[in-house]
Protein backbone atom coordinates (compact mmCIF):
# COMPACT_ATOMS: atom_id res chain seq x y z
CA UNK A 1 0.00 0.00 0.00
CA UNK A 2 1.30 3.51 -0.81
CA UNK A 3 2.15 5.62 2.22
CA UNK A 4 0.39 8.67 3.60
CA UNK A 5 2.33 11.81 4.50
CA UNK A 6 1.19 14.44 6.99
CA UNK A 7 2.69 17.63 8.40
CA UNK A 8 1.13 19.09 11.54
CA UNK A 9 1.86 22.73 12.41
CA UNK A 10 5.43 22.47 11.07
CA UNK A 11 7.61 25.55 11.42
CA UNK A 12 11.26 26.41 10.85
CA UNK A 13 13.25 29.38 12.15
CA UNK A 14 16.70 30.48 11.07
CA UNK A 15 17.61 32.89 13.84
CA UNK A 16 14.89 35.55 13.80
CA UNK A 17 13.68 34.61 10.30
CA UNK A 18 10.58 32.40 10.17
CA UNK A 19 11.00 30.42 6.94
CA UNK A 20 8.06 28.04 7.46
CA UNK A 21 5.16 29.24 9.58
CA UNK A 22 2.93 26.56 11.11
CA UNK A 23 2.17 24.55 7.95
CA UNK A 24 -0.30 21.66 8.14
CA UNK A 25 -1.37 19.35 5.31
CA UNK A 26 -1.87 15.68 4.48
CA UNK A 27 -1.11 13.72 1.33
CA UNK A 28 -3.07 10.49 0.72
CA UNK A 29 -0.93 7.52 -0.24
CA UNK A 30 -0.36 7.12 -3.96
CA UNK A 31 -1.27 10.70 -4.88
CA UNK A 32 0.65 13.52 -6.55
CA UNK A 33 0.83 16.59 -4.30
CA UNK A 34 2.59 19.80 -5.32
CA UNK A 35 3.74 22.83 -3.35
CA UNK A 36 3.64 25.88 -5.61
CA UNK A 37 5.10 29.24 -4.73
CA UNK A 38 7.59 31.96 -5.66
CA UNK A 39 11.30 31.69 -4.89
CA UNK A 40 12.02 32.23 -1.20
CA UNK A 41 8.52 31.29 0.02
CA UNK A 42 9.80 28.36 2.13
CA UNK A 43 8.88 25.38 -0.03
CA UNK A 44 12.42 23.94 -0.31
CA UNK A 45 12.95 24.33 3.44
CA UNK A 46 9.71 22.42 4.05
CA UNK A 47 10.80 19.63 1.71
CA UNK A 48 14.21 19.40 3.39
CA UNK A 49 12.49 18.93 6.75
CA UNK A 50 10.40 16.09 5.31
CA UNK A 51 13.59 14.51 3.93
CA UNK A 52 15.33 14.92 7.29
CA UNK A 53 18.02 17.34 6.11
CA UNK A 54 16.63 20.08 8.38
CA UNK A 55 15.10 19.74 11.83
CA UNK A 56 11.76 21.52 12.33
CA UNK A 57 11.61 24.20 15.00
CA UNK A 58 8.13 22.99 15.85
CA UNK A 59 5.39 20.61 14.76
CA UNK A 60 5.38 17.02 13.59
CA UNK A 61 5.98 15.10 10.34
CA UNK A 62 4.31 11.70 9.98
CA UNK A 63 4.53 8.91 7.41
CA UNK A 64 1.81 6.27 7.71
CA UNK A 65 0.89 7.79 11.06
CA UNK A 66 4.38 7.43 12.55
CA UNK A 67 6.42 10.49 13.49
CA UNK A 68 9.76 10.73 11.68
CA UNK A 69 10.97 13.96 13.29
CA UNK A 70 13.61 12.12 15.33
CA UNK A 71 14.50 9.68 12.53
CA UNK A 72 17.74 10.51 10.65
CA UNK A 73 17.55 10.93 6.86
CA UNK A 74 19.19 7.60 6.07
CA UNK A 75 16.57 5.75 8.12
CA UNK A 76 13.55 7.45 6.62
CA UNK A 77 12.19 5.59 3.61
CA UNK A 78 12.03 8.88 1.71
CA UNK A 79 14.00 9.60 -1.46
CA UNK A 80 14.64 12.87 -3.25
CA UNK A 81 15.19 13.91 -6.89
CA UNK A 82 17.05 17.20 -7.23
CA UNK A 83 16.91 19.79 -10.03
CA UNK A 84 20.40 18.83 -11.23
CA UNK A 85 19.66 15.11 -10.74
CA UNK A 86 23.04 14.31 -9.08
CA UNK A 87 23.75 11.23 -11.23
CA UNK A 88 27.27 9.84 -10.79
CA UNK A 89 29.20 10.58 -14.02
CA UNK A 90 31.84 7.95 -13.32
CA UNK A 91 29.22 5.15 -13.20
CA UNK A 92 27.14 3.76 -16.03
CA UNK A 93 23.33 3.77 -15.89
CA UNK A 94 23.02 0.38 -14.24
CA UNK A 95 25.61 1.25 -11.60
CA UNK A 96 23.82 4.52 -10.85
CA UNK A 97 20.53 2.73 -10.27
CA UNK A 98 22.19 -0.07 -8.29
CA UNK A 99 24.11 2.24 -5.95
CA UNK A 100 21.52 2.35 -3.19
CA UNK A 101 20.90 -1.39 -3.41
CA UNK A 102 24.63 -2.10 -3.01
CA UNK A 103 24.71 0.20 0.03
CA UNK A 104 21.97 -1.99 1.52
CA UNK A 105 24.12 -5.08 1.01
CA UNK A 106 21.84 -6.72 -1.57
CA UNK A 107 23.21 -9.64 -3.59
CA UNK A 108 24.49 -9.15 -7.14
CA UNK A 109 21.84 -11.26 -8.86
CA UNK A 110 18.97 -9.56 -7.02
CA UNK A 111 20.45 -6.15 -7.89
CA UNK A 112 20.68 -7.11 -11.56
CA UNK A 113 17.05 -8.28 -11.54
CA UNK A 114 15.77 -5.13 -9.84
CA UNK A 115 17.74 -2.79 -12.12
CA UNK A 116 16.40 -4.53 -15.22
CA UNK A 117 12.85 -4.43 -13.85
CA UNK A 118 12.91 -0.71 -13.04
CA UNK A 119 14.43 0.13 -16.44
CA UNK A 120 11.56 -1.75 -18.08
CA UNK A 121 9.03 0.21 -16.02
CA UNK A 122 10.44 3.59 -17.04
CA UNK A 123 10.56 2.56 -20.69
CA UNK A 124 14.36 2.37 -21.04
CA UNK A 125 15.22 -1.33 -21.27
CA UNK A 126 18.71 -2.17 -22.42
CA UNK A 127 20.44 1.08 -21.37
CA UNK A 128 22.13 -0.29 -18.23
CA UNK A 129 25.56 -0.29 -19.87
CA UNK A 130 25.31 3.22 -21.27
CA UNK A 131 27.26 6.10 -19.75
CA UNK A 132 25.32 9.00 -18.26
CA UNK A 133 26.70 11.47 -20.84
CA UNK A 134 25.18 9.34 -23.61
CA UNK A 135 21.64 9.98 -22.37
CA UNK A 136 19.26 12.74 -23.41
CA UNK A 137 17.92 15.17 -20.81
CA UNK A 138 14.63 13.31 -20.55
CA UNK A 139 16.40 9.95 -20.19
CA UNK A 140 18.58 11.33 -17.38
CA UNK A 141 15.42 12.53 -15.66
CA UNK A 142 13.90 9.06 -15.78
CA UNK A 143 17.12 7.42 -14.59
CA UNK A 144 17.23 9.76 -11.58
CA UNK A 145 13.69 8.71 -10.72
CA UNK A 146 14.49 5.02 -11.31
CA UNK A 147 17.49 5.27 -8.94
CA UNK A 148 15.07 6.35 -6.23
CA UNK A 149 12.16 4.05 -7.11
CA UNK A 150 14.30 0.89 -7.16
CA UNK A 151 14.60 1.40 -3.38
CA UNK A 152 10.78 1.35 -3.04
CA UNK A 153 10.45 4.58 -1.03
CA UNK A 154 7.33 5.48 0.95
CA UNK A 155 7.50 9.01 -0.43
CA UNK A 156 9.38 10.48 -3.39
CA UNK A 157 10.33 14.16 -3.07
CA UNK A 158 11.00 16.12 -6.27
CA UNK A 159 12.74 19.49 -5.92
CA UNK A 160 12.04 21.42 -9.16
CA UNK A 161 13.43 18.52 -11.23
CA UNK A 162 12.38 20.02 -14.59
CA UNK A 163 13.99 23.42 -14.04
CA UNK A 164 17.16 22.66 -16.02
CA UNK A 165 15.35 21.30 -19.10
CA UNK A 166 14.49 23.22 -22.25
CA UNK A 167 10.85 24.21 -22.77
CA UNK A 168 9.82 21.46 -25.20
CA UNK A 169 11.40 18.71 -23.12
CA UNK A 170 9.89 20.20 -19.95
CA UNK A 171 6.42 20.00 -21.48
CA UNK A 172 6.92 16.35 -22.43
CA UNK A 173 8.38 15.43 -19.04
CA UNK A 174 5.33 16.83 -17.22
CA UNK A 175 3.25 14.15 -18.89
CA UNK A 176 5.86 11.45 -18.34
CA UNK A 177 6.22 12.25 -14.63
CA UNK A 178 2.48 11.95 -14.11
CA UNK A 179 2.44 8.61 -15.94
CA UNK A 180 5.40 7.34 -13.90
CA UNK A 181 3.69 8.32 -10.65
CA UNK A 182 0.61 6.32 -11.65
CA UNK A 183 2.74 3.39 -12.73
CA UNK A 184 4.73 3.16 -9.48
CA UNK A 185 1.69 4.11 -7.33
CA UNK A 186 4.01 5.97 -4.96
CA UNK A 187 3.29 9.17 -3.04
CA UNK A 188 4.93 12.07 -4.91
CA UNK A 189 5.60 15.44 -3.26
CA UNK A 190 6.69 17.97 -5.88
CA UNK A 191 7.82 21.56 -5.37
CA UNK A 192 7.90 24.16 -8.09
CA UNK A 193 7.51 27.86 -8.86
CA UNK A 194 6.04 26.95 -12.27
CA UNK A 195 2.25 26.95 -12.11
CA UNK A 196 1.86 24.93 -15.32
CA UNK A 197 3.84 22.04 -13.80
CA UNK A 198 1.70 22.03 -10.66
CA UNK A 199 -1.63 22.34 -12.46
CA UNK A 200 -0.91 19.69 -15.11
CA UNK A 201 0.52 16.94 -12.89
CA UNK A 202 -1.02 17.27 -9.45
CA UNK A 203 -4.02 15.73 -7.76
CA UNK A 204 -3.86 18.55 -5.20
CA UNK A 205 -1.75 21.69 -4.90
CA UNK A 206 -0.75 23.90 -1.97
CA UNK A 207 0.04 27.52 -2.85
CA UNK A 208 2.73 28.83 -0.50
CA UNK A 209 3.60 32.45 0.26
CA UNK A 210 5.87 33.88 2.97
CA UNK A 211 6.13 30.54 4.78
CA UNK A 212 2.41 29.80 4.90
CA UNK A 213 -0.13 27.99 2.75
CA UNK A 214 -2.60 30.38 1.13
CA UNK A 215 -4.81 27.60 -0.23
CA UNK A 216 -4.84 23.83 -0.74
CA UNK A 217 -7.06 22.38 -3.43
CA UNK A 218 -7.37 20.69 -6.76
CA UNK A 219 -5.88 22.49 -9.76
CA UNK A 220 -9.45 23.31 -10.79
CA UNK A 221 -10.19 24.82 -7.34
CA UNK A 222 -7.13 27.06 -7.47
CA UNK A 223 -7.81 28.28 -10.98
CA UNK A 224 -11.58 28.77 -10.87
CA UNK A 225 -12.12 29.52 -7.16
CA UNK A 226 -8.98 31.15 -5.68
CA UNK A 227 -9.38 31.80 -1.96
CA UNK A 228 -7.07 34.83 -1.68
CA UNK A 229 -5.83 37.70 -3.80
CA UNK A 230 -2.38 36.11 -3.87
CA UNK A 231 -3.70 32.84 -5.32
CA UNK A 232 -5.86 34.70 -7.84
CA UNK A 233 -2.84 36.65 -9.06
CA UNK A 234 -0.28 33.84 -8.92
CA UNK A 235 -2.17 30.92 -10.48
CA UNK A 236 -2.93 31.38 -14.16
CA UNK A 237 -3.03 34.50 -16.31
CA UNK A 238 -5.35 37.23 -15.11
CA UNK A 239 -6.29 40.88 -15.40
CA UNK A 240 -6.15 42.92 -12.20
CA UNK A 241 -7.79 46.18 -11.19
CA UNK A 242 -7.26 48.08 -7.95
CA UNK A 243 -10.54 49.57 -6.83
CA UNK A 244 -12.73 50.87 -4.00
CA UNK A 245 -16.11 49.46 -2.93
CA UNK A 246 -19.08 51.67 -3.82
CA UNK A 247 -21.98 49.39 -2.90
CA UNK A 248 -22.53 45.82 -1.62
CA UNK A 249 -25.55 43.55 -2.06
CA UNK A 250 -24.76 40.11 -0.64
CA UNK A 251 -21.84 38.80 -2.68
CA UNK A 252 -22.43 41.37 -5.44
CA UNK A 253 -20.03 44.32 -5.37
CA UNK A 254 -20.18 47.62 -7.18
CA UNK A 255 -16.80 49.30 -7.30
CA UNK A 256 -14.83 52.09 -8.93
CA UNK A 257 -11.37 51.34 -10.26
CA UNK A 258 -8.45 53.66 -9.66
CA UNK A 259 -8.59 54.50 -13.37
CA UNK A 260 -12.16 55.76 -12.95
CA UNK A 261 -14.23 52.89 -14.40
CA UNK A 262 -17.43 51.79 -12.64
CA UNK A 263 -17.84 48.00 -12.58
CA UNK A 264 -19.62 45.10 -10.93
CA UNK A 265 -18.10 41.94 -9.47
CA UNK A 266 -18.54 39.01 -7.13
CA UNK A 267 -17.12 38.92 -3.60
CA UNK A 268 -14.76 35.93 -3.25
CA UNK A 269 -13.78 35.90 0.46
CA UNK A 270 -16.69 34.45 2.48
CA UNK A 271 -14.72 34.74 5.75
CA UNK A 272 -14.47 38.54 5.38
CA UNK A 273 -17.03 41.12 4.30
CA UNK A 274 -16.25 44.40 2.56
CA UNK A 275 -17.56 47.82 3.49
CA UNK A 276 -18.12 50.88 1.34
CA UNK A 277 -14.78 52.56 0.77
CA UNK A 278 -12.66 49.43 1.30
CA UNK A 279 -9.75 48.99 -1.10
CA UNK A 280 -10.10 45.80 -3.11
CA UNK A 281 -8.26 43.85 -5.82
CA UNK A 282 -10.36 42.58 -8.74
CA UNK A 283 -9.32 39.71 -11.04
CA UNK A 284 -10.77 38.61 -14.39
CA UNK A 285 -9.36 35.76 -16.51
CA UNK A 286 -8.54 36.61 -20.16
CA UNK A 287 -10.78 33.77 -21.39
CA UNK A 288 -13.76 35.34 -19.58
CA UNK A 289 -13.55 38.49 -21.71
CA UNK A 290 -15.47 38.79 -24.96
CA UNK A 291 -14.14 41.09 -27.66
CA UNK A 292 -16.36 42.81 -30.21
CA UNK A 293 -15.67 45.32 -32.94
CA UNK A 294 -16.73 48.89 -32.20
CA UNK A 295 -17.16 50.96 -29.03
CA UNK A 296 -18.95 49.68 -25.95
CA UNK A 297 -22.70 49.48 -26.44
CA UNK A 298 -25.58 49.19 -24.01
CA UNK A 299 -26.06 46.29 -21.63
CA UNK A 300 -28.16 43.63 -23.38
CA UNK A 301 -29.35 41.86 -20.25
CA UNK A 302 -27.66 40.58 -17.11
CA UNK A 303 -24.83 42.19 -15.21
CA UNK A 304 -22.07 42.78 -17.73
CA UNK A 305 -19.04 45.05 -17.54
CA UNK A 306 -18.21 46.83 -20.79
CA UNK A 307 -15.27 49.03 -21.76
CA UNK A 308 -14.09 50.56 -25.03
CA UNK A 309 -10.48 50.48 -26.06
CA UNK A 310 -7.92 50.24 -28.83
CA UNK A 311 -6.09 47.06 -29.77
CA UNK A 312 -2.50 47.82 -28.87
CA UNK A 313 -0.99 44.43 -29.68
CA UNK A 314 -1.91 40.91 -30.76
CA UNK A 315 0.11 38.04 -29.31
CA UNK A 316 -0.04 34.94 -31.54
CA UNK A 317 0.42 31.60 -29.81
CA UNK A 318 -0.49 28.92 -32.30
CA UNK A 319 -3.98 27.68 -31.43
CA UNK A 320 -4.90 30.92 -29.68
CA UNK A 321 -4.09 34.60 -29.76
CA UNK A 322 -4.30 37.21 -27.04
CA UNK A 323 -5.32 40.81 -27.51
CA UNK A 324 -3.86 43.63 -25.46
CA UNK A 325 -6.51 46.35 -25.39
CA UNK A 326 -5.79 49.79 -23.95
CA UNK A 327 -8.96 51.31 -22.50
CA UNK A 328 -9.84 55.00 -22.56
CA UNK A 329 -8.60 55.21 -18.96
CA UNK A 330 -5.20 53.79 -20.00
CA UNK A 331 -5.60 50.32 -18.45
CA UNK A 332 -4.34 47.31 -20.47
CA UNK A 333 -6.89 44.48 -20.68
CA UNK A 334 -5.78 41.04 -21.84
CA UNK A 335 -8.42 39.01 -23.68
CA UNK A 336 -8.22 35.68 -25.48
CA UNK A 337 -9.14 35.94 -29.15
CA UNK A 338 -11.07 33.05 -30.73
CA UNK A 339 -9.89 31.84 -34.13
CA UNK A 340 -13.39 32.04 -35.62
CA UNK A 341 -16.53 34.10 -35.15
CA UNK A 342 -17.18 37.82 -35.13
CA UNK A 343 -13.93 38.70 -33.36
CA UNK A 344 -11.67 36.77 -35.73
CA UNK A 345 -9.44 38.98 -37.84
CA UNK A 346 -9.42 41.96 -35.48
CA UNK A 347 -6.35 44.04 -36.27
CA UNK A 348 -3.97 46.20 -34.28
CA UNK A 349 -5.28 49.74 -33.92
CA UNK A 350 -8.98 48.82 -34.15
CA UNK A 351 -11.50 50.16 -31.67
CA UNK A 352 -13.16 47.33 -29.78
CA UNK A 353 -15.47 46.60 -26.90
CA UNK A 354 -14.32 44.24 -24.14
CA UNK A 355 -17.07 42.75 -21.99
CA UNK A 356 -17.38 40.20 -19.23
CA UNK A 357 -20.11 39.07 -16.79
CA UNK A 358 -19.94 40.51 -13.27
CA UNK A 359 -19.90 36.90 -12.06
CA UNK A 360 -16.45 36.43 -13.61
CA UNK A 361 -14.88 39.39 -11.76
CA UNK A 362 -13.60 38.04 -8.45
CA UNK A 363 -13.06 40.63 -5.70
CA UNK A 364 -10.76 40.44 -2.65
CA UNK A 365 -9.70 42.86 0.05
CA UNK A 366 -6.50 44.48 -1.13
CA UNK A 367 -3.39 42.89 0.34
CA UNK A 368 -0.45 40.70 -0.66
CA UNK A 369 -1.53 39.79 -4.17
CA UNK A 370 0.92 38.17 -6.55
CA UNK A 371 2.51 40.49 -9.10
UniProtKB/TrEMBL annotation:
One of the GO biological process terms: quaternary ammonium group transport
Listed GO CC annotations: ATP-binding cassette (ABC) transporter complex
MF GO annotations: ATP binding; ATP hydrolysis activity; transmembrane transporter activity
Keyword line: ATP-binding, Nucleotide-binding, Transport
SUPFAM superfamilies reported for this sequence: MOP-like (SSF50331), P-loop containing nucleoside triphosphate hydrolases (SSF52540)
Pfam families for the chain: ABC_tran, TOBE_2
Residue span, ABC transporter domain: 5-235
Gene3D superfamilies documented for this protein: 2.40.50.100, P-loop containing nucleotide triphosphate hydrolases
Family: Belongs to the ABC transporter superfamily.
Protein name stated in the entry: Spermidine/putrescine ABC transporter ATP-binding protein
Species of origin: Prosthecodimorpha hirschii
Amino acid sequence: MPSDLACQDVSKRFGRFLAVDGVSFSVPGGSFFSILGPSGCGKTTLMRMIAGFEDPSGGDIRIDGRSVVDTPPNRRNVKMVFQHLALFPMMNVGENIAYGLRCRGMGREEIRRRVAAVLDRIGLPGVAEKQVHQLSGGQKQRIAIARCMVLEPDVLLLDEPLGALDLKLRERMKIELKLLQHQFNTTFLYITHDQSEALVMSDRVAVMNHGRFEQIGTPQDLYHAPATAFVAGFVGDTNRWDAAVVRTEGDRIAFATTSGDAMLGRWAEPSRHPAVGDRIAVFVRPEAIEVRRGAAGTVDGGEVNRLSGTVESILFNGAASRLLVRTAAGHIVEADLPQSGAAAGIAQGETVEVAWPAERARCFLAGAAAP
